[in-house]
Amino acid sequence: MKKKVMVAMSGGVDSSVAAVLLRDQGYSICGATLKLFDDEDELTSCNTRTCCSLEDVEDARSVCYKLGIEHFVFNFKDTFKDEVIGKFARSYEEGNTPNPCIDCNRYIKFSKLIQRAILMEKDYIATGHYAQIEYDNISGRYLLKKAVDLSKDQSYVLYVLSQHDLSRTLLPLGAMEKTQVRKIAEERDLINARKPDSQDICFVKDGDYAGFLENTMGVESKKGNFIDRHGNVVGQHKGIIHYTIGQRKGLGIARGKPVYVINKNMEDNTVTIGNKEDLYTKKLKAFDLNMIAVEKLTSAMKATVKTRYSQQETPATLHPESEDEIIVEFDESQRAITPGQAVVFYDGDIVIGGGTIRE
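^ thats the sequence. predicted structure below, dont judge the formating
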């Protein structure tokens, strides 16, 4: 009997080609697109490419029609509002800089979709993410590995996947180059063969995070003081939610040389500025851990680490602090480590696990 797969169809070229590949491999497939907003029409007016717009739903439907498969649209907007947008706003209120795309993967694109697939008696879900899943007979665990095309690798944003998620997921593009994917889409004459990749956070119009937080989520943004490392007031900021660690532009402070945001204090509503060298540190503490290659960390472990999606990994030592906290000690100082962002641990091309940066 053919294995049944529900393909998460975002309307983009990657998920569309994932569906093509699985159908060609003999799976029984259907497409599923997620409704996450009340007003897609407004979102499609953004100047940048996002995902999950009304246009994307239509593109996904068109591809499914061309492939001769069923297409479903699932309304997950309430969960998305609570688990992703709400958490995004709360994190900024606490002075952090969150990554909502990771929360969307954790709570929506995998967890909720897998639940729906099981209800509909499907064996797997599949997505167009660039990463690989492999079962390790020795450890008895599912492993998450980097994509072959390292320029497109998305293992960083998938570190939150549980063993159950991994056991129910197929990633057909993990062993492919992006150029191959585009070529397949063009050969099959898919409507989105030349469609640009999604950019920016889908629910924030034109990248105006502070405006979204204030006007849509009602997050208060009080003016306060810029201070230097010694506590001296050097200017006035327009609200902490407008700033992130490492920021240089838009500060409105003339100091005769470049200055950067090096700390934010929600209690006294201050933003600390300093020199470039003040941004560097050799340690961070992470919490809300999800370990993949191992059940848990019981002793110090060497690894390579990423604290941002786009950066190169760097050598570090992981020190378990408690059941849900790890101290990461880098071999060399790292720039602008930002609370709220994800830190992901690697052993070669295998994701050990990851967590959220606390401090």
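The first helix runs from residue 13 to 24.
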